[in-house]
Design goal:
alpha+beta; Aminopeptidase; seven-stranded mixed beta sheet; 7 strands
């Protein structure tokens, strides 16, 4: 059974380690270099443990950690959303089981309001997931550049029948 578990301060090392693996995977879409220690820089990592407006969830399937989601309210398009899906992943060995779709829907239900979700156009799986998730809410599509797209929508809006 899929569930969301709020990341606590004592989960910092685990989150750091799995975020590094995620950031490595994102080098398929972004040209982010490693530092001299072999790590990828994530500028807001510590803020997820100090800023009460930032939230991290571990995505669990029964007792197995299958992914994570990082949320914040800081807009990519100059708006004032309630939530941004800053980072989101389901680990490769757990993909194609609909965990990402189910977890994303759970997060939107838990955090109603104005949302922004950004994805890289080269990441076909992310593009498909986020357009499926946001589709019922008739999102506004914003192209930040040739590679990045933001979907802006409100879960408070009435879904079409």
């Amino acid at each position: 059974m899929l569930k969301l578990v709020t990341v606590q301060n004592n989960d910092r090392d685990l989150l750091y380690n799995i975020n590094q693996k995620y950031l490595y995977e994102m080098t398929n879409y972004y040209d982010d270099p490693m530092d001299e220690h072999g790590n990828f820089h994530y500028g807001h990592f510590e803020e997820y443990f100090t800023d009460p407006k930032r939230i991290v969830y571990f995505i669990m399937n029964d007792d197995a950690l299958v992914g994570f989601a990082m949320l914040c309210p800081y807009s990519n398009i100059g708006e004032e959303p309630d939530n941004i899906m800053a980072e989101f992943t389901v680990f490769p060995s757990y993909r194609r089981r609909h965990f990402a779709l189910e977890a994303a829907k759970m997060i939107l239900e838990r955090h109603p309001g104005k949302w922004e979700i950004k994805y890289n156009e080269k990441n076909g799986a992310a593009k498909k997931l986020w357009n499926t998730v946001a589709g019922p809410y008739s999102p506004e599509v914003h192209h930040l550049n040739e590679e990045e797209t933001v979907l802006a929508f409100s879960t408070d809006a009435e879904k079409p029948v």
